[in-house]
Amino acid sequence: SLGKHGIKILFLSDNIAESLEHQFGDQNLFNYTDRSSFEYFYNNRLLINHNIIQITIRLHPSEKPTNFNWAISLQYPQVVKSNAKNLIEDFIQHDVVVGSDSMAMALAIMCKKRVVCSIPPKGRVCSLPFDEIEMLRDLTK
Fold first, then answer.
1. pLDDT in tens, 63-105
2. 3-state secondary structure labels for all residues of the chain
């Protein structure tokens, strides 16, 4: 679906901060949050591709619909929220999938998508056992 006008990137939230807060009472246990992961991706997005026309945030099913409202602002002009019914629909409409450490990234690999992990350098290492997942922190070197 690579258009001649540029690529679309799907960012998968995994709701890590809320999950860690709930389980361990410390939302920064892994040294990153969905927000820091997104901001790290956004600030380094041109390392993935120079011609990005849209960035779509797909919320985790456990998330409040208002999460990431801060990103839908003038600061991030290309950013929208997904309204696709399911992941596969989102995969079809996007060229690259970016996320932290979610099973949806594994699914994206199986769907032959380019997948990039955006856990910031100080965050823990991605636990997904797929060599195909590119590390944004390696692209910045």
1. 888 889 988 876 788 899 999 989 999 999 999 999 999 999 9
2. CCECCEEEEEEECCCHHHHHHHHHCCCCCCCCCHHHHHHHHHHCHHHCCCCEEEEEEECCCCCCCCCCHHHCCCCCCCEEECCCCCHHHHHHHCCEEEECCCHHHHHHHHCCCEEEECCCCCCCCCCCCCCCCEEHHHHCC
Select the more confidently predicted residue: 84 or 22: 84
This prediction's pTM = 0.91
